[in-house]
Amino acid sequence: MFHRRRATMAAFLLPAIVVYGLFMLYPLARGLYLSMTDSLGGPMADFVGAKNYQTMASDSEVVAALWHTVLYAVVVVVAQNALGLLFASMLFRRARVRKLLSVVLLTPTLISPVMAAFIWTYLFAPDGGINGLLDAVGLHSLDHVWLGDTSTALYSVAAVNIWMFTGYSCAIFLASYMSMPAELLEAAALDGATGWRRFTSIEWPLLAPALTVNVTLSLIGSLKVFEFPLVLTNGGPAGSTETLTLLVYRNVFGGGKFAYGVALSVLLLVTVVVLSSATSSLLRLRERRI
Amino acid sequence: MTAYPRQLRRLAHGLGTVLLCLGTLLFVLPFLFTVATSLRTAADVARSPLGLPHTFTLKNFSAAFSQIQYGTSTLNTLLITSLSCVAVTAVGSLAAYPLARITQGWSTAVYRLFILGTSVPVFVVIAPLYLLMRDMNLLDSYAGIILIYTALNLPVAVFFYTSFIRSIPPELEEAAAIDGCGAFRTFFTIILPLLRPVTSTLLTFVSLQIWNDLLVPLVFLQDPGKRTVMVNAYSLIDPHTVQPTTLFPAALLGVLPLLVIFIFFQRQVVAGMSAGAVK
């Protein structure tokens, strides 16, 4: 009787396996194969081995895009988590404003990246909100063509990303703060541990799991960023905000270099998997040591 | 201890609260600015871009409304989002039941295969998916795009549901089995009702992703009548040439349905977004 029951239960898996296998696992496997062909997307394709990957290694556009992608991710991960942690640690000590402000901080997370990019395109414009605000407080000398200058464009795009997800990082840190054992914090207060001392020796170690989650999530999210550079700069000026995702999109759907674009998407997968698993295992190791 | 440092500390605390409020204000300032500008006339904005509104107008909204074909595109987005959510919930919860209750080796292997999907960016499968959709005649169809979203979100759903079902004590199901209740009926009468809270958490997370997505509908839907809000906004409005009085209302209209949901389901949304962290 239990045997038959188990067989029926196993059948529950069928729809999931069909959908997931056909629309996720199969494309993944086919992508790996296509990246080693000269396919243009049509039925005719020859196997060319590692040729696409060799071309990639000497393609300065790809090397630059890989560098921009990683730099962008580092800027976003560091700034977003530092800001999120700062907000969370201050909110934790201020019960009266905690709930309201943390919800308010989360609102940018709700809007779509396209819409966020729309708003910020104008804020970054030469006659837009940021320069206007700088003028208003008498810092006219800091006015800048934020998205039009190769030295600031990538950081400006990253700023939009940080603006959108700081509330998210903050919410995760805050949840970790709220689960700290009250006795421990009270004991620390009795011992006279305050301010920075209390943060470094008690809170920071207890925040380790939240830090792991936050860093891993923001790293994966920022490595596969697409809408922000697409709408804000479309890779420009002079290719200074060209990311791997933009290159994949252009090669696959617009360049007649289909297989090359697929190979680039494999490079993106490898980058995401290597960097995120390295970071999360390093952080997990750190958690265990603390 | 003297009273002096305590007072000083209280002062620092108060100052921190003020700074905190200012910092948060800085984060919502772009929103407030967007709303204010949307309600002004183009001439008024041109006169003083950062000034307070002198005149109020809703004309900008009606212009943006027709420019991004808001009525049709919102209905399309709503249809795609809700049907994908239904499919993810049904297929995901059904699959999670055996994965949580059967402890043999193959079950763990299948579970791992699903979890693998959480770290695969859409970009990696988009090109082969395009070929597959073309060969299956599913390009430009709601069915195709819903199947894609189901597959993309199944890993999170399986993760959520499996860990939740594992936390349900199996005694109830064992009793049902002894009473002759089959696996199918057990699932529907005992397990499914218990999944309600985890489903609402999962769905806020999933629907947010689908509603806001650009790439999948941009690639797989070409028929202008089937396009979503984000695709229309992206392809019909060039933010670099358009006036903020056109741009901002369009952005607000795109966010509006989600903001309404957020206000009504604030608690679940916050829970859903933090739960997405475990992903």
From TrEMBL, chain A:
Boundaries of every ABC transmembrane type-1 domain copy: 66-279
Keyword Transmembrane: yes
Lipid bilayer topology: Multi-pass membrane protein
Top-rank taxon: Bacteria
SUPFAM superfamilies: MetI-like
Transmembrane segments: 7-29, 65-88, 100-125, 153-175, 206-226, 258-283
UniProt-listed InterPro entries: ABC_transporter_permease (IPR051393), MetI-like (IPR000515), MetI-like_sf (IPR035906)
Compartments where located: Cell membrane
Positions in coiled-coil regions: none
Keywords: Cell membrane, Membrane, Transmembrane, Transmembrane helix, Transport
Protein family: Belongs to the binding-protein-dependent transport system permease family.
Protein name (database record): Carbohydrate ABC transporter permease
Automatic annotation (TrEMBL), chain B:
Signal peptide boundaries: none
Annotated family: Belongs to the binding-protein-dependent transport system permease family.
Protein topology in the membrane: Multi-pass membrane protein
Keywords: Cell membrane, Membrane, Transmembrane, Transmembrane helix, Transport
InterPro entries: MetI-like, MetI-like_sf
Transmembrane spans: 12-33, 78-97, 109-130, 142-164, 176-195, 246-265
Cell compartments where the protein resides: Cell membrane
Domain ABC transmembrane type-1 per the UniProt entry, residue ranges: 74-265
Protein name in UniProt: Carbohydrate ABC transporter permease
PANTHER family membership: ABC TRANSPORTER PERMEASE PROTEIN MG189-RELATED, ABC TRANSPORTER PERMEASE PROTEIN MG189-RELATED-RELATED
